[in-house]
Amino acid sequence: MRWTDAVTQGLVWVEVGVIAYFLLVNSFYAVLLVSAAKELVRHTRQIRGERRWRVLDSKVAPSVSMLAPAYNEAATIAESVRGLLSLYYPNLEVVVINDGSRDKTLDVLTREFDLAPINPVYQRRIETRPVRALYRSRIHPNLVVATKENGGKADALNVGLDLATGDLVCAMDADTLIEPEALQRMVRPFLQGNEVLAAGGTIRVANGSVVRGGRVVRVRAPLRPIPGIQVIEYLRAFLFGRLGWNRFGGNLIISGAFGLFRRSAVIDVGGYAHDTVGEDMELVLRLRRRGYETGGPHRVDFIPDPVAWTEAPESLRVLGRQRDRWHRGLADVLWRHRRVAFNPRYGTMGMLAFPYFVLVELLAPVIELLGLFALGTAFLIGALDLRFAALFFLVAYGIGLWLSVATLVMEELTFRRYDRMRDRLILLLWALFENIGFRQLTAWWRLRGLLKFIRGRTDWGAMERRGFHRAGATTTSAQNIHARQQSSRTAPEAGR
Amino acid sequence: MISDLVVVRTLAVVGVLLTLSVALYLGHGLRSLRYERRKAMQLARARVVVQTVAHQGEISEQEFRILHSLPRNLQIRLLGEFLRNLAGASRQRVQVLAERVGLNAFAERRCRSRFWWRRLEGARILTLCEAGEALMVELFRDPSPLVRTQAAEWAATHPSLRVIHHLLGLLQDPQGLCRFTVQDSLLRIGRPAAEPLRHYLETHTGPDAESALAVAAGSVVPSFLGPALTLSRDPDPSVRTRAAALLGALGGQQAADRLGALLADPDPRPRAAAARAMGALGNWRSAPRVAELLRDPAWIVRREAGLALRALGNPGMVLLRRSLRDPDRFAADMARQVMDIPQMNQRAGVSV
What we know:
The structure holds two protein chains of two kinds.
Chain A (H helix, E strand, L loop, with lengths): L2 H45 L5 H4 L7 E7 L6 H9 L6 E8 L5 H9 L1 E3 L13 E7 L5 E6 L4 H11 L4 E5 L4 E2 L3 H5 L1 H5 L3 E10 L4 E3 L2 E4 L6 H24 L9 E5 H6 L10 H16 L4 E12 L5 H21 L10 H16 L1 H17 L5 H28 L7 H35 L12 H4 L25
Parallel strand pairs in A: 1-2, 1-6, 2-5, 8-12
Antiparallel strand pairs in A: 3-4, 4-5, 6-11, 7-12, 8-11, 9-10
Helix pairs in contact in A: 1-8, 1-13, 1-14, 8-14, 8-15, 10-11, 11-12, 11-15, 13-15, 14-15
Chain B lengths: L3 H52 L5 H8 L3 H14 L2 H14 L1 H9 L4 H14 L3 H7 L5 H11 L5 H9 L6 H14 L4 H10 L3 H12 L6 H7 L5 H14 L2 H10 L5 H14 L5 H6 L6 H13 L2 H10 L5 H12 L2 H6 L4
Helix pairs in contact in B: 1-2, 1-3, 1-4, 3-4, 5-6, 6-8, 8-10, 10-12, 11-12, 12-14, 13-14, 14-15, 14-16, 15-16, 16-18, 18-19, 18-20, 19-20
């Protein structure tokens, strides 16, 4: 046998393996899609005609503390905090953690909210970097500000957890725009029973939409391809990825940009881990593990209708860094909790969700790029079988495209946020383009992240944001966060 | 290895799926755009009719027909919008209009459906229209927790004895949302629920009494004292904690004496609740016993004891100052922390 024959034979087997992998993965996605559709129907029926005022003015509603870490956000912090204070929720406390900002973040807060020093009696149950001072607003007594030495987002959130007094804590990014009614919708699973540890809402891409007074007032599809394609990714990740997992009890991620947790449970597990770039996923896994190990509650729900808006990266460079970091975080978290894999002690989380995250979310870029590499090599040595190539593209990208369009159908039949025909057509276009070029690029970034993880890199990388004022027509708040060092993992598992 | 047929078939399947999905997406988009436009016009005309009813009460047959010809979902949306925001005579007139349009009959039919979501929809409409008493009472026993929850919400505006008894029965519902709604409805009902609630507290113990104690603490009635004293001896520490809070809200010598005993409870939660209640009552005689809790092994008890001492005024402050030199460093530390609290928080009545 000549060496070219051996290589050709090897490439054929690689292609067969890759096609089989994608067939299997896409079949599972189809199951998730059906599961998500069922969940969506059930949820829509549950909330149709529901009056949420009961929660709004009830004496027995659980109290909620919003934890907003801020780092060098003097330009926007006042508007962001005003947005939080105006959320429609009765027992609301806002805890802003100034994470050692080197600009005038604290001065702005002091001036705008008339802060006065306080010495509350609170228990430091989680080790953090030293807290320098605590303040409470004289205008809004439910606003508490902590200023501390810089320690990163996880550390800031841990300070917030120590200080918060609410039954539930909402972890968020300071520049996330939360819809006014989102909290009322989000507490629902916690009211339903004690077995829920955490709940996550939908994160949507605000680029292109009109933002006014810290609220998205008109939803529009972005005209720029990079944020436009991310709209599709986010919709797929949340509407069918996380919603689909609800039925199987396999949700492992609550977005750090907007998630609600039972405070006592988070404190009991020691709060956020400092030494990982995937601290939101790590916390959820730790919470759920502990639940399984102690026979306690371990449910994590995803609720589709509470919505928070985020600004997606608009340049390939920034997006690449973000995806690289997300994948490093994913690899790190899965490695830390590797004992969960195929362990029946952890129920569906161990037997289904965790292996899925390893085999599909973590390894997908490896397999995908391997398939593309095999095709490219076969082409170069003149051994390309067109049938193989066609089947590979159909199974990997054709079905991927269908899944994206199916998610758009789900969005259309339920929430219908993009209400202009023009926006629908634009989204359809981005769904198509996502599979041509963008997806391969993402696979490369993710592979790079995986390789960095193997080499032991743990840096965050800078996250530059353009600011909503440039993304949308009008804006006055909670935006323009330049050079933020930390941005949450908002839509990691793209579900393709 | 792979035949052309496999590729062609896969292409066909993917193509068909894609075409169908795109057609559904765009088709639905077009349809909903047209529908929205038509709906907006219909709604605008019907809104004027409902406004007329709300303000004057009288409309012509032709005007009524405008509302009557509206699709059912739009009728529900429009009338719901008014009913949620009106009160008094205007609201009653709109309720009569809803009945005349056939909304109540429609909701009652829905309530008899075998599908939970239809029953839920019916119950929600009847809640909005404050109608269908006979039917809603049956829904307290519905197999769906969501429907039971809705029935409990409806009950807040129908505080008859029979309804209150049904509500109390749902305090032990396995579904948390239902229990929450029942508690909320009982709190909204207020006085009329007090006597049945007292009876409930007298006849229930353990976890069954816990939710009721939370309601009782929110609507303080002197007759709750007896059950609160009894339940403060319950074997379940959560119940004793709730009972301590209720005793603190009720006040009086008997309550203070019992709270004094709870300061030595074996579980930290009732101890903390008792200390807090002592502070809230301003029971300065208990100050030395509360001060002892500054040495408690549980942080929450030390904190509540410290805050209670501060709330007790001078007698408490004297003990706090003395505790600064306590050989137990935890007691001294808590005393220092509590004494460090600036006056601002006290004046503003802000919790610390």
